[in-house]
Amino acid sequence: MLQTHLIIVDECGPGLFSSTGVAKCFNCPTGTYSSQKRNKACISCPNGTVTVINAAKGIEDCGSEFMFASESLIAVNPTSKTSI
């Protein structure tokens, strides 16, 4: 009797990558993003922009360094929406 085996492989989704695009995936580092599935590499943000998070999922996560620097000066309590 012939047996078949189903092999399920996890794809590297947006914000992730690996050398094969599947299996053990890693977060895209700060300053890069990936927006597709099966990513083998992350894409650098355009000149003059960066991401402030790992695993950015799209170019919309890239912003100017000045914008992120000024936002980091204001801390917000997420439950009360008041400045700290």
Helix content: under 10%
SS content category: mainly beta
SSE sequence, one letter per element:
EEEEEEH
Question: What is the global morphology?
Answer: elongated
**Terminal-residue CA separation:** 69 Å
Q: What about the largest sheet? A: 2 strands, antiparallel
Quaternary organisation of the protein chains: single chain
Output the radius of gyration.
18 Å
Describe, in plain words, how this protein is organized in 3D.
This protein has 84 residues and is mainly beta. The protein has a domain at 16-71. The chain has one helix at 65-71; strands at 16-17, 26-27, 32-33, 43-44, 49-50, 63-64. Strands 1-2 form a two-stranded antiparallel sheet. It has a two-stranded antiparallel sheet with strand order 3-4. The chain has a two-stranded antiparallel ribbon with strand order 5-6. Strand 1 and strand 2 form a beta hairpin. Mean pLDDT is 78; it is low at 73-84.
Structural topology:
Elements: E1 16-17, E2 26-27, E3 32-33, E4 43-44, E5 49-50, E6 63-64, H1 65-71
Antiparallel strand pairs: 1-2, 3-4, 5-6
Offer a concise description of the structure:
It is built from one helix and six strands. By secondary structure, the protein is mainly beta. The strands form three sheets. Strands 1-2 form a two-stranded antiparallel ribbon.
Features:
84 residues; mainly beta; two-stranded antiparallel ribbon; two-stranded antiparallel sheet; 1 helix; 8% helix; 14% strand; elongated; disordered C terminus
